[in-house]
Predict the 3D structure of the following.
Amino acid sequence: MENENDLKWVFWLGTLFMAFMALSIVLLAVFYQRRFYIVKQHEAEVGLKATLEAEKTERNRVAADLHDGISGDISAILNLVGVLELKNRQIENVQLLCEIKTALGITIDEVQRVSYNLMPPLLETEDLQAVLKDFFNRVEKTYKVRVEARYFSEGLLLTTSESYELYRCIQELTENVLKHGKASSIKFSVDCIEGEYVFRFLDDGCSYDFFKASKTAKGMGIRNIKARLSNLKAILVQLPSDSGNCIFIRKKIKG
Amino acid sequence: MYKVLYLIALYSGIIPICLYLLRKGTKLNLGKEIVFPFITLTFIATIYEQIGVIYSIIGSSYWFQIYAVLEFTALFYYYRELNFIKKKQEFEIFFAVFFVFFYLISWMFFRTENIFLSLFISQIPIVLLVIVSSFSWFKKLFLNKEIKDLWKNADFYFVSGYLIYCASTFFLFSLSGFLVETSLYFYDYWLVNVLATLFLRIMLSIGVWRMKMT
């Protein structure tokens, strides 16, 4: 009888203890895991911000070097060629010098285009919409594509940093559809709807799934867009489209 | 009351596989999810306990011995495929040898009139597998910090459900051999297994519901 009592006590105490221990481990895991996850997310966000800031600074530096350094040097060479042309009137030399001038002129344009693509100088002084207008004008001339753009009547309340990130996203989307999608027309608009800026991007090129493409090895550009939008706390939505692509970027207006 | 709880715990074994088939729908490649062997085994156990016992297809003593092998295999497969173990080969060899050793010993103590001792011996490697694997999984969870919300993660329900089941029933299986030979009313104690089984099957059902189907 006494043994039976002991057995009962051992059984119930043991069972309750083991069940309590297991349950405690599970509940502790639930409670602390979420905290650790939030810390990790915060670290990743800080890292991402630092990376994007470093990239922006580097682009700025390279663009400045190209524009001030190389572009200036080529312009100086062009001037020297002009002087040589005046001094040398032999027909074969005049022709050669003319070709050199043309090539140098094209190179200056190319350097300025690369410099502008790296860091549009207008971003420092103008509204994002002004930069986008200029961008799409150059896209129309360079790629012989039709661009229908409609902009918001008022200026956008965005910091230079936010404008830069959005510009990069739209630039990347445009380059994607022109190079890979072979689009012949682009429709772009900026609206303010219910406290959000909505950037709408439509094209008639090859359809692609933005989120699927970001998971492939070749989706580097798209992953960059995702990283920038995550940094901006903006959302990208892709709507199904019969032909081409229909992408919206939504950014909440601060204040 | 005991009978009602027993029947609920018994028939709840059908729920995980039904939920699995419902969620799978028309998608092919049935059984690709790593928990599928275990929920199938739960279903088979339910069917056996309802039909097999009545028609004595296999004696219940022998069924418990066979079930131990099936249970170990299903759990071993699940934890192995969960892919959180660093030294996979060592893990596999150790637990396979450990189980075979204890399983053979359980047959040495097997008696049809009192199967509890052999049942406890065959459960030892399973309990050890569950505890070691569960701790390793939780450790990996904290190190990798990849899962945002545990409540939405299917593996959390499977791992923690089985951990709590094994912990709750450890003393029952270890002392059943003695309890049954006393004057104590055994079913008061076996109720722990009924409740633990019911809890496990509820966790399995929630886990299957939360699972991402391939």
In short: The mean pLDDT of chain B is 84. Residues 127 and 167 of chain B are 8 Å apart (CA to CA).
